[in-house]
């Protein structure tokens, strides 16, 4: 029982030490005063930023005439004069996605209209007693007559 208590206390102490060391490792690279809660001015960096560091600026893109039209059609801008010289790729992607959605809505509407039109035309043909079977039989009979006329000649 005492041995189990000793082992439990030892493992708890190890976990505590691991947490303390990880927090100390985090504070080595940061300003300790800021972590404690004091408000101080950030230290000016004496060294110049290296070329290998990543810049957080968003890359910009000069839109073509077609892309300007897409920005207007998507509703992002009202006139071509309002479009800036350079835009972000995210803005262009958002405009393209909006146009894709609009085009898909138009295609859905055209598909539904085409289906309704075909139903109406099919009902009119049924009233005239026209069907694919009767049209097929008439065509085959006409082809047989033409073949018989050629045989007689």
From TrEMBL:
Q: Where in the cell is it found?
A: Membrane
- GO cellular component entries: cytosol; membrane; mitochondrion
Q: Which domain of life is it from?
A: Eukaryota
Q: Which residues cross the membrane?
A: 103-120
Pfam families for this protein? DUF1075 (PF06388)
Topology term for the membrane: Single-pass membrane protein
Q: Which UniProt keywords apply?
A: Membrane, Transmembrane, Transmembrane helix
One GO term under biological process is:
neuron apoptotic process
Role summary: Proposed to be involved in regulation of apoptosis; the exact mechanism may differ between cell types/tissues. May be involved in hypoxia-induced cell death of transformed cells implicating cytochrome C release and caspase activation (such as CASP9) and inducing mitochondrial permeability transition. May be involved in hypoxia-induced cell death of neuronal cells probably by promoting release of AIFM1 from mitochondria to cytoplasm and its translocation to the nucleus; however, the involvement of caspases has been reported conflictingly.
The Swiss-Prot or TrEMBL record describes its family as follows: Belongs to the UPF0389 family.
User: What does the record note on quaternary structure?
Assistant: Interacts with HSP90AB1; HSP90AB1 is essential for FAM162A mitochondrial localization and pro-apoptotic activity. Interacts with VDAC2; the interaction is probably involved in inducing mitochondrial permeability transition.
Name this polypeptide is given: Protein FAM162A
Source organism of the structure: Otolemur garnettii (Small-eared galago)
């Amino acid at each position: 029982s005492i041995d189990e208590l000793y082992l439990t206390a030892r493992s708890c102490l190890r976990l505590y030490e691991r947490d303390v060391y990880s927090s100390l490792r985090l504070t080595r690279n940061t300003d300790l005063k800021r972590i404690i809660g004091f408000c101080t001015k950030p230290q000016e960096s004496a060294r110049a930023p290296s070329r290998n560091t990543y810049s957080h600026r968003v890359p910009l893109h000069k839109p073509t005439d077609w892309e300007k039209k897409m920005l207007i059609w998507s509703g992002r801008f009202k006139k071509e004069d309002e479009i800036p010289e350079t835009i972000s790729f995210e803005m262009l992607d958002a405009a393209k996605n909006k146009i894709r959605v609009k085009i898909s809505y138009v295609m859905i509407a055209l598909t539904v209209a085409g289906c309704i039109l075909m139903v109406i035309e099919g009902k009119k043909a049924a009233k005239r007693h026209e069907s694919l079977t009767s049209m097929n039989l008439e065509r085959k009979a006409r082809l047989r007559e033409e073949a018989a006329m050629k045989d007689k000649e």
